[in-house]
Design a protein that fits this description.
heterodimer; A: alpha/beta; 6-stranded mixed β-sheet; 4-stranded antiparallel β-sheet; 10 helices; globular; B: mainly alpha; two-stranded antiparallel sheet; 18 helices; 2 strands
Chain lengths: ~260, ~350
Amino acid sequence: MNAPTTVAERLSASGTANALELRGISKLFGALVALSDITISVHPGERRAVLGSNGAGKTTLFNCITGDFLPSSGTVRFFGEDITTFPAHERIRRGLRRTYQISQLFAGLSVFDNIYLACRGVSQNRFSLRRPGKDDALMASAEDLVRVVHLDEAKDTLVSELSYGQQRQLEIAMALSGAPRFILFDEPAAGLSPTERSELIEILVGLPDHMGFIIIEHDMDVALRVSESVTMMHNGRIFKEGKPAEIEEDPEVQALYLGGGDG
Amino acid sequence: MAVVDQQSGDSVKTSADSQSQGAKTTWFERVPAIYWLLALVLLIMPVMASDFALYQIFGWSFILGMIALSLMFLAGYGGMVSIVQMTIAALAGYMLAIIGDSAITEISLGWPWWISIPLALLIAMIFGTLTGALAVRTDGIYTIMITLAIASAFFYFTRQNYVLFNGFSGFNGVLAPNLFGIDWRNPVPFYYLTLFWATVSYLVVLYISRAPFGLALQGVRDNARRMAALGYNVNAHRIAAYTFAALIAGLGGILLTWQSTQISPGTAGIGPVIDILVIAVIGGMTRPIGPFIGAFIYVILKTFAIDILVSLGLSGDRFQLLIGLCFLLIVFFSPDGILGLWDRMRAYQKRDPLRDQMGEAP
């Protein structure tokens, strides 16, 4: 139960294991094969983009990794630990984070409360009956996160009253709470304005080096600028893996993804 | 930006209060004047009101308010409509009678109050926790059904079990202990006793709503999936909410048993069990004051419906019809209860005509 708390401790505890290691992940919904035999290894600190047309299984893959539902077969290892059957909250407490394609926020609470909840979720005393005081460490870290995603002015605003772009920023802030070791970003740039996009890229590029992530992104501009490796998915399978430049120039990828296809 | 400011001004005050303004104003300056007025009126009520009003109207309102408050905590903050709260209250009452003193000496153990009360509350909390553990696996209407099923099972079980629950007649002669030389059965002491515990329950719920546990519960209500993705064990939080709600319901149950000096299956019959839901709904479930408003209206109607009917030259037997009609009217005009009505009235008064007109202009 005594999970290592500092990043350094966690890194040393994880040893040489991969941050994320998926082996033979398949997911069936009845007769529909959403994922089939997905094997991916991501080393700590690596930034990987997952590309693919709609229905390629990208979000389903995320859901299997975070435990929103369990894969039909295969194993998920997180820093060497087999988390395949762990409930979602146990994975999050181990340093995994995610954002959602469609914002999943607490509409009835303020921006600050949303972020505070995210910070509290990955720390102790989740059941505390005592209100946090002014010197509460989590209050301070929540304040920091508010600033990181430029929501200072909207801090006390109810989430239901935020603009779309602000909600997306809040999604990201909540994924950065605590000490994340690995983050899954599900189309963070979808629907953002060009200015908001460049702000997003700034945030993603500015993440600490040890913090790896996988980003699902339709916008090649964003995806290729923030990632060092790319996985192409098609119809629930891995189609291509490689460096951003290789993928961009690959004729098969161009035919499938950039040249129209079904995406 | 202007629109955001205007709308959020009121609703986010709680969080702003506890953080940024905390340094500038003391806590009693932040309590609205109307609450101080209400507190003063309630404190000096025994000077103005009759014994009957103190005992039957206010005492009963505070007690039912507490039991409905436990439902408000689950439903308003947790999004879980539990029908079982009156049952939990009745169980605490039964345990008080069985472990403590009653006229049924062959069953009652006659242990002192400082054992019987904590034990009764503990058993009520265990029962609430078990009910919660069953109910949290369901959602919406199914939570209602499963808790209703538990409530009916409890009602029929107590009516048929004579060994422990003394069947149909239950227990009478369950009296409050003579503590500090005061006979708590007298209207004035009983009034203050119920007022005290109702106030404590109210303040505790209000406080917890902004503590991590309460905030997390509201998060679970808004988006359970996201809460799990933030590291929360969603079901554990829901079950803990049932445990806490059972404590308040249990306290209410003990006071209710003292008030009527008896506990019987009818206390937690299907009617009373659903009345708690009615009280919470007509009062409003968005804030902890709602259940007390609902309870007061309910008690007034229940007490005076017969008199009203008779004074109109109608048969007093139809008093349930009159009560039902009144509830129907309230819910028809304000689906979120009296609190909703109050909030809309406040919003209407605060409306800035100039800004509204500018907003409408193209």
